[in-house]
Amino acid sequence: MACLMLMFATPALFYALGYALLANAYTGSANRLLQWVFGSGAAWFDIETWSGLVTVMVLKKVSVIYLFLIGLFRALDASHDDASLVSGVSQAGAFFHINLPILAPALA
């Protein structure tokens, strides 16, 4: 949880530099490691593309969304899940048909 809170305090410049050092196509640590392990000369990740930009932004935003939603999911009553499982509904079905409609006002 403390690591997720650190995402708020980290300036965008340090965050961008960290991912650039990790996934740069030429000198990134992750690319170097994967090239060494698999013996390939091609870069595995290229952070300087649109897909790299989207991946970095999604990774940062997912942690923020997780922090906002964890309280809502902890406040759910477990008896709804138990009743749905006894009725033969899968866990995914219980999530989409019971829990998500209960949380819909808070998610809007």
From TrEMBL:
It is a multi-pass membrane protein. SUPFAM superfamilies: MetI-like. Residues 1-108 form the ABC transmembrane type-1 domain. Signal peptide: none annotated. One of its GO terms (biological process) is transmembrane transport. InterPro entries: MetI-like, MetI-like_sf. The keyword Transmembrane applies. It is found in: Cell membrane. GO terms for cellular component: plasma membrane. The chain crosses the membrane at residues 49-73. Keywords: Membrane, Transmembrane, Transmembrane helix. This is Binding-protein-dependent transport system inner membrane protein.
